[in-house]
Amino acid sequence: MHIRSVTAHAFGPLRDATLELAEGMTVVVGDNESAKSSWHAAIYAALCGRRRGKGRSRLQEQHFTDLHRPWDGNDWLVSAQLVLDDGRLIEMRQDLAGKVDCHAKDLVLGHDISADVMNDGMPDASRWLGLDRDSFVACACVEQAQLLGVLDDADGLQEHLQRAAATAGADATAAAALDCLEDFTRENVGLERANSTKPLQRATVGYARAQEDLERNRRMHEEYLTRVEIIDQLREQAAARTAAVRAQEAAVSGADAEQLTERARRAAELHTIYGDNAPASMATDDALARQVSDALAAWQSRPDESALLGRPSAQIQAELDSLPPIPDGDIEAHPTVLTALDEITRADIQLDQHNRSQPPTGDHAPQVTASDDELLDLARALESPVPPTLPPLRSEPGRHTAVGRPTARSATALIGFGAALALVGVVLFGIGSPTVAAIVLLVGLAVAGTGALRRRGYGGGAQAAARGHEADQVQAQWRREEAVARCAALGITPDPPAVRAIPVARARAAGLAGHLAQWSQQDAELRAQAGAAYAKLAEALTARGYAPTHADRDAVIAATNRYRDECRQRAVQAVAARRRDDLTMQLSAIRAAEQRAVQDQQQRARAINLLLTAARTCAVRAETPDQAVSGLQEWARVREARLGEVSRAEREWAELAALLAGRRLADLELEASSARSKANRLAAQIPPAALAAVDTAPVADELPALREQASAAETAAAAAEGELRLFAISVGSVAEAEEALERTQNELDRVRDLQETLRLTSAFLSEAQTRVHRDIAPVLAATVKRSLPVLTDGRYTDVLVDPTTLRVQVCGPSRLWRDAGRLSFGTAEQIYLLLRVALADHLTKGHDTCPLLLDDVTVHADARRTRNILALLLEIAADRQIVVFTQEEQVAAWARENLSAPRHGIRELSTVPAA
Asked: What is the distance, to the nearest Å, from the Cα of residue 85 to the centroid of all Cα atoms in its chain?
């Protein structure tokens, strides 16, 4: 197939415009705003039309509409004339707005053949190529800067690749079969996930629920049996605890009977000793015993005699009174004063060093009104030698003409130059510079006169040269005399070295003056810094209470010295005053020790007094404290022995009173007899073994707890029996649950068998699809590889193509593979251009030849690769139609040079007028 022409009846900015295309390669050249992209889109729209399906437009279709719908009016219409490979001439008409006035018509027979290529409601010429409108865009219709877009439509191209490889273009593919299997699997098997409602998930959930029901029924049955065992245990426990209560009651009753019997026996024994009268008491001498005990305790706890160490408190107090007070004021120089002193020291050192570097001030430049340039010109004029006088020359006929012409030209130049100088002198007279004006005027007249003499007197040959030499001699002599006169006017010696020395002296004097000015400025700054430092010191001294009497330096130094002397005096006073705290502590310690000594003496005297008083009260003869201590200790020992006998009698009398508890002895004996009878009666009701197992020392306080435990055990057993009756109602049948589990297991096995069958079928089809991919990949790679080295100047020589994703890998002679998408953008575009050509070639095999519509495919290529791409496209154009849109002058120049009609052509677009 090739496109003969395209007419944009109403498309974007185009209206009723026709673009003729060559059968081979056509390069369409145009600047910006020349509708290149609109023509490219119009060709695609004329071939493939638009989808006329229900629902909203896809994003790409809406974008296409926004870009290319006509600017004015409601029409949106394109048409194209195609020539198929079988020679049929077809007209494609696409009503893109209404999608009704569309057809594919055989212009020779007049037949409407739209049904042959109908696709989504509109005729699509790409069907003759074995493609559809989406895959045609992906491989054969490259939009501006969209060479890599083939990757975005890799899924759509897979279907066409498989049909081309497996069934020579038939509609059925392994991918379609896999889709059908996937749909059947989705509906009749599904996935095992929580939100699925398909058979596999339902069977899995049913089986799991049946398992749960069976497990629950089994657990409930086992729990029922367990509860029955627990109830039996509770009943046994309740009976055992009731028997334990009875045995404990019998044991407690027996213990109470034995206790009462023992109390009655002990009471009878004590009553025999004391009867009804209480024993005598020793309470009358308790006060005397306490007096003896206090006296002995005071003597034993008396303090030892101690001697005072160190100076007495009066001497320390006198020394403390003689100490000076803590001084008020600084005892060392304040940091602000020290900082200011440091700054003064640094400022004085810098000022002294600066004074030693003072530059000399004796050189003065000569006072001459002339400038340095004028003085140097005068020196050069004084140094210029006067040409020597030439010897007389003989006339040489024949040389006049050869020498005369340049001499006349030089004379004319001298006359012109002298006249110009004279005119300048006149002007200077007018602006008020008479001296300079006179000099310039004289020089101008002299130069003009010299030129006149040369022109008038030198007609030719050696005589003219001699006369010119004489004129130069006169002019040099005149310049020297003029310089001498100017020196005299300036008042300087007309000596070249002396004249040259004046600018040198001026420069040296200027340098010394600048150095002196810089030194003076720095001197002022340093003196200002020193003054600021002294002012800062004066401010610091004033803040410390030592304001200088005057603002001069000596007064500040004097105040500083006075401040530092008094700081040293206060430091000495402070050292002496710091002893006050130490002496105060010593005085406090000595006074405390003296007070303790007095208290110890008083305590010893009191202890002696207590001993002697207690001895007199107890009738103990003692004249010394030691004798009193010995006598009182003996008195206390004798009383202690007597007190033990009396205490024992009092304890036994108190015990008798406690045993009787206000009753008579006969009443206690009767109560013991009754308790024994009760214990014997209870013991007769308990088995001997159970009674023997009871603790030999039963406690009556444990009986309430035992009774409560027995009651709780009985209650627990009754409650467990009631719960068991309720639980028995909810226990399901284990046999029924096992039957339900078997039914769900069969259903799950059936669905999983179906799933495995479908999986194996999909695996076989996937393997077949993989074999197709293995067949396609080498074909695509071989097609790309043929042109890759030429296109990339030998940088990349081999290629791999993944038919699943259309990703391309390339390598060079080093065999290091690189993903083409990660190379430079221009290189990636060039490689994927080759892939598009390979896809167009492979996908349309067995169908009409596919044209290639390329928009600015060289925009990211350098000059050399641009030529390579165009040469490759020209080579491809031998077999298929190539249409290249470009705005690059290099491409246009190449097309003009390499494309020849009628097989190929170049079309130049003009700028579209603004709306």
From this structure: 63
Nearest CA to 231 out of 718, 730, 725 is that of 718
Contact between residue 15 and residue 9 where contact means Cβ atoms under 8 Å apart: yes
Segment 632-655 mean pLDDT:
75
Label residue 256 exposed, middle or buried (CB < 10 Å: 0-12, 13-18, 19+).
Answer: middle
Q: Which residue is associated with the tokens 């990949």?
A: 777
123 within 8 A of 117, measured Cβ to Cβ? yes
Cβ atoms of residues 18 and 35 within 8 Å = no
Q: Is 570 helix (H, G, I), strand (E, B) or coil?
A: helix
Distance in angstroms (rounded) separating the CA atoms of residues 737 and 135: 59
Please give the Cα distance from 879 to 644 (Å, whole number).
145
- With cut-offs at 50, 70 and 90, classify the pLDDT of residue 388: low
Q: What is the distance between the alpha carbons of residues 90 and 84, in angstroms, rounded to a whole number?
A: 8
CB neighbours (10 Å) of residue 877? 22
Whether the Cβ atoms of residue 283 and residue 698 lie closer than 8 Å to each other = no
At 797 the three-state DSSP class reads: coil
CA-based nearest residue to 790, from 872, 710, 895: 872
Amino acid letter, 361: T
What DSSP assignment string belongs to 441-497? HHHHHHHHHHHHHHHHH--SHHHHHHHHHHHHHHHHHHHHHHHHHHHHHHT----HH
What are the residues whose beta carbons fall under 8 Å from the beta carbon of 850, sequence distance 6 or more? 1, 129, 131, 136, 139, 140, 840, 841, 843, 844, 880
Which of left, alpha, beta for 247 (phi over 0: left; psi -120 to 50: alpha)?
alpha
**DSSP 8-state assignment for residue 810:** E
DSSP state of 114: G
pLDDT for 460: 46
In angstroms, the CA 210 to CA 191 distance is 20
Q: Which helix (H) or strand (E) holds 574?
A: helix 553-577
DSSP character for 910? P
Distance in angstroms (rounded) separating the CA atoms of residues 691 and 682: 10
Confidence of residue 161 (pLDDT cuts 50, 70, 90): very low
Q: How far is residue 271's CA from residue 665's CA, in Å, rounded to a whole number?
A: 8
DSSP 515-531: HHHHHHHHHHHHHHHHH
CB 213 within 8 Å of CB 737: yes
Give the pLDDT confidence of 557-567 residue by residue, as tens digits: 888 888 888 88
The three-state secondary structure class of 201 is: helix
Instruction: Identify the weakest region by mean pLDDT among 116-125, 155-164, 245-254, 699-708.
Output: 155-164
Predicted local distance difference test score (pLDDT) of residue 166: 41
Q: Is 883 helix (H, G, I), strand (E, B) or coil?
A: strand
Q: Where do the domains of the chain lie, and which CATH numbers do they carry?
A: 2-189+770-908 (3.40.50.300), 203-277+666-730 (no CATH)
Q: Output the pLDDT for position 163.
A: 44
DSSP string, 297-334: HHHHTPPPP----SS-HHHHHHHHHTSPPPPSS-SS--
In the three-class reduction of DSSP (H, G, I as helix; E, B as strand; rest coil), residue 78 is classed as: strand
Amino acid, res. 668: L
d(Cα 819, Cα 813) in Å, to the nearest integer? 16
Per-residue pLDDT tens over the stretch 842-877: 777 778 889 999 988 888 888 888 898 899 899 889
pTM of the model: 0.40
Measure the CA–CA gap between 417 and 412, rounded to whole angstroms: 9
Nearest to 181 by CA among 673, 846, 754, 819: 754
Q: Please, what's the largest Cα pairwise distance for the chain?
A: 203
Closest CA to 867 of 875, 145, 40: 875
Can you tell me whether residue 850 is helix, strand or coil?
coil
Mention every residue, 6+ apart, whose C-beta is less than 8 A from residue 635: 292, 618, 620
- CA trace torsion 64, 67, 71, 75 (10° rounding): -10
CA 238 to centroid of chain Cα atoms: 73
